[in-house]
Amino acid sequence: MLKQEIAAALEVAFSQHGFAEPSVAKLQKLSGVSLRTLYKYYPSKQAMIIAALEYRHTRYLHFLLKDSPGEGVNAVLHMFDQLKLWMQQYAPNGCLSINALSAFPEDEVISSAVQNHKNEVKQLLGEQSLNASIASSLFLLHEGVSSAWPVIGDEAVLAAKQSILKLI
Fold it and tell me: DNA binding happens at which residues (predicted)?
């Protein structure tokens, strides 16, 4: 349980402070555990980043499906409504995974974690739409909202939902 609590605290820390700025000492302080305990579970800053990304991934997928009306077009539109709430509440500066990839473009472990996250989001969109052949298009709309959110906010979600209705 403590390991998950630390991962949750690391997710918040990286979301609020980015990846370059917080030192391990600051991450330890923000995690509320001793340095020894932090290193016991996450022996490097890279491991701390991966833990935060994996924790966020699980939380995000559950968030997208919360109160889902089932499957099909209404489920996909609901996921985009959930995406809007996520961006408002947890990601006003854009996608944490993409930010991690931008901060560490040469890190294969971080790249792999981000790739896995994005693949699962794409797969989920295909499953919820009941049409795997449009999963890539839905994923592109999803990523467009995440990227455009810091600049145009709600307008990004509205445009994506209009495109979804034309696509499906």
Answer: 23-42
Instruction: Return averaged pLDDT per consecutive 10 residues of the chain, 168 residues in all.
Output: 95 93 94 95 97 97 96 97 96 92 96 97 97 97 95 96 95
H helices of 70-153, in order, are 73-90, 96-103, 108-129, 135-152
Side-chain half-sphere of 53: how many Cα atoms within 13 Å? 25
**91 in Cβ contact with 46 (< 8 Å):** no
- Please report which helix (H) or strand (E) contains residue 12, including its range: helix 2-17
Distance CA 52, CA 31 (A): 11
Task: Show the domains of the chain with their CATH numbers.
Answer: 2-167 (1.10.357.10)
Report how far residue 101's alpha carbon sits from residue 103's, in angstroms, rounded to the nearest whole number.
Answer: 5
Residue 121 dihedral angles phi and psi, to the nearest 5° = -65, -45
What's the angle, vertex CA 136, arms to CA 50 and CA 126, rounded to 5? 85
**DSSP state for residue 60 in the 8-state scheme:** H
Residue 92: the pLDDT is 86
State phi, psi for 5 to the nearest 5 degrees: -65, -40
pTM check: above 0.85? yes
